[in-house]
Amino acid sequence: MSEILPIRKIIHVDMDAFYASVEQLDNPELKGKPIAVGGSEKRGVVSAASYEARKFGVKSAMSGMQAKRLCPELLFVRPRFDRYHEISKKIRRIFFDYTDLVEPLSLDEAYLDVTQNKKGNPSASLIAKEIRERIFKEVGLTASAGISINKFIAKVASDYNKPNGQKTVNPEDVISFLEQLDIRKFYGVGKVTAEKMYQMGIFTGLDLKQKSIEYLEEHFGKSGKYYYYVVRGIHNSEVKPNRIRKSLAAERTFNENLSSEIFMLEKLQQIAKEVSRRLTKSRVAGKTITLKIKYSDFTLQTRSKTLPYFVSDHSVILETAKDLLYQEKLNNSVRLLGISISNLNTDKTPSNKTQTEKEKSVSVQLKFEF
């Protein structure tokens, strides 16, 4: 039996090349130039790249050496996270002028539910336009936005007219929009999954829609059910203003590869203090401590240990990280170490429902102003 589910007006706001744009804002000499935030031409990893750098193929998570090869004129800038937090707070204050239902995903993006909003404006599209104009006027940065009936489609749409643009997917256009969409554009489909889908003859949303839920679960596990429903426009996760933190971490990339465990312990002490500081600031504690090791050949290894009690003290975190470091012999010299803590005391196990909203068929109300 078909059931009419609540149609929401969701906006996904995504800042354009946020870290790099802040650097260009604060330093006019960098405007119009290819810049990378983080890393260097010899070491480290790029955290963000300006659009001028992206034209050469430079992107986040790329090694500084590779980025420099792609773009010889690339300028490296040290990240200033305190400044990014400061700007992010200004942007969020603008969001709260329109709705209290704001769910930040990171410093540079957030969902807004404006179904009922403080301005009494029935048009989510006009609200998104006004928000983007205010961000540019009051902060000096550009933002892109996606507007639709749920978080999934809004996030996909926000990437559609980047940079400095927006796209609205009206309720009556949802199905055709998703059917024509390249599978690589689906939020939640990564590079590896996209390649796997291509090999299976799934290139668009329409191709994905032809597959049964049993087929998708067989080939993609739990994600199969997610793919089955989102391609039908069904994704009823609410905008959650207070997202529950699942983990907290800190890491360091070194200027020189470390081969001595003595030097590594010195670095781990600094990282453990930073993790403890962040735990204290967030007023949380956790049980599972994970040591992240990236070797000089870029291979990654993680080692975890779960304690019988919640911890936030840096000395306990450090001692556990030491145990994990000595747990087995290192494979190579080390370029990065990180410590994360999960299984936090904020974790809540959701109650099981006999039938979730995702599992109900949906009837879309077409006369709904966007």
Automatic annotation (TrEMBL):
Subcellular localization, as worded in the UniProt entry: Cytoplasm
Family annotation (InterPro entries): DNA/RNA_pol_sf, DNA_pol_Y-fam_lit_finger_sf, DNA_pol_Y-fam_little_finger, DNA_polymerase-Y, DNApol_IV, PolY_HhH_motif, Rev_trsase/Diguanyl_cyclase, UmuC
Domain of life where this protein originates: Bacteria
Cofactor: how bound: Binds 2 magnesium ions per subunit.
Chief location bin: cytoplasm
Catalytic activity: DNA(n) + a 2'-deoxyribonucleoside 5'-triphosphate = DNA(n+1) + diphosphate
Complexes and interactors: Monomer.
Function summary: Poorly processive, error-prone DNA polymerase involved in untargeted mutagenesis. Copies undamaged DNA at stalled replication forks, which arise in vivo from mismatched or misaligned primer ends. These misaligned primers can be extended by PolIV. Exhibits no 3'-5' exonuclease (proofreading) activity. May be involved in translesional synthesis, in conjunction with the beta clamp from PolIII.
Protein name: DNA polymerase IV
Gene: dinB2
